[in-house]
Design brief:
single chain; Aminopeptidase; alpha/beta; 12 helices; about 450 residues; 2 domains; Alpha-Beta Plaits; globular; four-stranded mixed beta sheet; 21 strands
Length: about 450
């Protein structure tokens, strides 16, 4: 597996140019400038391009080709804030290379992924200039790092009647042993804030003998939400969960890495009841869960202060399986609180945009990706039915009808959202080669199909 030196050099320069643009969507900073650069790159690579406004940053769209198969490529050009700046070894918005890695904000998430695909496209078109026998719609988002608040509405406006076959998602993973991971799905998410107020101001703690404590109220309410196995106790919570198909169950039944590796990597020690070395991977893929993100209230300073707090706040998130709608889960939670005597606790929805999705791996493009990733990385690919994390992929799956395909170069030491974010140069090379071959293989398949010598 080799790529031309000039292709790699151009990819590095493209990445350096993109990293230099401080496209932080949380601050709405330089998003238009980065969108302009992305559009220039796509236009220069032969795509018909356009920009479309979002709530915060513009969307960039590139289109090319015609045929019986439509590939949607989804990336994003916005990045996380660079703070804390003093923990970066080099300036965060200057691409630097050290010890076989490229460092900079967005080098992995997601500018490096975008650049690897674009470089592969250029290499493919350099050797194949005939008309493309399938269609590509390349969508580059400027709001992903703040939850893509206008993505679904944009897709509905810009592509009201569009159907597509495959969505090449914005990232994929490479584990610590160098095995590429193909992601076939994501969990949904509901983020909420619970609040409780019991007095007009903090009181002397001696009055705890007669007045209730808002932190006790919140702790008791939160503890009613699940058991020691992590099973959510809200009535109706599991009613709409879509069971995984047999193929997905088979893929998750045999963990691709031992539980002890995950424990060593994360430092996690205490497992939920019923989770063990044989079942943990199924839980990661399929089980919805509720998490307590934080408790706030009372005195948190040095030493002691004997105070009865007047109010408290708890932040939680639910990771949801396909079929569960975040807003309905919020309604069920409100009912649970009211039925269990916690009607005084307020509920504020912080995020309810992302629905869980999971695609079947029984698709020719997944088989093609497995074969090409083996050649690119020299290690068999892992097909993961669902990421434990969340991604706003449901419009592409539910609206366009796409099969999800998450393959990319983000390794497990990439320091996403942290100082010294990075990619491995070798992984960049591998994904440029993979992208070139992926485009070429699709082109060969549908050229032959158009000529009538092979069925699609």
């Amino acid at each position: 597996m080799q790529i031309a030196a000039e292709i790699l050099a151009a990819a590095k320069q493209d990445l350096a140019d993109l990293v230099s643009i401080r496209s932080v969507s949380a601050r709405a900073e330089d998003l238009e400038a980065c969108a302009d650069k992305v559009e220039d790159l796509l236009s220069g690579a032969g795509f018909d391009t356009g920009q479309y406004p979002g709530d915060v940053g513009p969307f960039v769209v590139g289109e090319t080709g015609e045929g019986p198969f439509t590939l949607v490529i989804y990336n994003h050009y916005d990045v996380q804030p660079e703070d804390p700046v003093d923990l970066w070894t080099e300036p965060p918005f200057v691409l630097s290379e050290r010890d076989g890695r490229l460092y900079g904000r967005g080098s992995a998430d997601d500018k490096g992924e975008f650049v690897s695909r674009l470089a592969g496209w250029r290499a493919f078109r350099k050797s194949c200039v005939e008309p493309l026998p399938f269609k590509i719609i390349w969508i580059v988002d400027g709001e992903e790092e703040i939850g893509s608040p206008s993505l679904a509405r944009f897709l509905e406006r810009r592509f009201p009647e569009t159907t597509a076959d495959l969505c090449w998602w914005e990232f994929g993973e490479v584990d610590k042993t160098g095995r590429p991971i193909i992601l076939m799905g994501f969990k949904g998410i509901l983020a909420i804030e619970l609040g409780c107020r019991t007095a007009k101001a903090d009181l002397h703690s001696s009055l705890g003998a007669i007045f209730d404590n808002p932190l006790w109220r919140l702790a008791t309410a939160v503890s009613s939400l699940r058991d020691d196995k992590g099973r959510v106790l809200i009535k109706g919570f599991y009613d709409d969960v879509v069971e995984p198909d047999d193929r997905s169950k088979q893929l998750a039944a045999v963990p691709p890495f031992p539980l002890v590796d995950l424990q060593q990597e994360t430092g996690g020690e205490r497992l939920l009841a019923g989770v063990d070395a044989d079942t943990f991977y199924e839980h990661i893929n399929f089980e919805p869960c509720v998490n307590v993100n934080s408790f706030h209230g009372g005195y948190g300073g040095e030493g002691s202060k004997t105070v009865l707090p007047c109010e408290g706040v708890a932040k939680l998130d639910f990771r949801l399986a396909p079929g569960q709608h975040p807003l309905l889960v919020a309604e069920l939670l409100r009912q649970h609180l009211d039925l269990n005597g916690f009607d005084d606790i307020s509920l504020k929805i912080l995020d309810a945009e992302v629905l869980g999705v999971r695609s079947s791996s029984l698709h020719f493009a997944i088989d093609l990706g497995v074969d090409l990733l083996l050649q690119a990385f020299g290690r068999p690919a892992i097909i993961q039915p669902s990421s434990a994390a969340s991604g706003l992929a449901h419009p592409f799956v539910n609206k366009f009808g796409c099969t999800l395909f998450g393959a990319g170069l983000t390794h497990h030491g990439a320091m996403l959202h942290s100082p010294d974010e990075n990619i491995l140069v070798s992984h960049l090379e591998n994904m440029i080669w993979f992208s070139e071959q992926f485009f070429a293989s699709l082109s060969d398949r549908f050229r032959l199909s158009t000529e009538g010598s092979r069925d699609v």
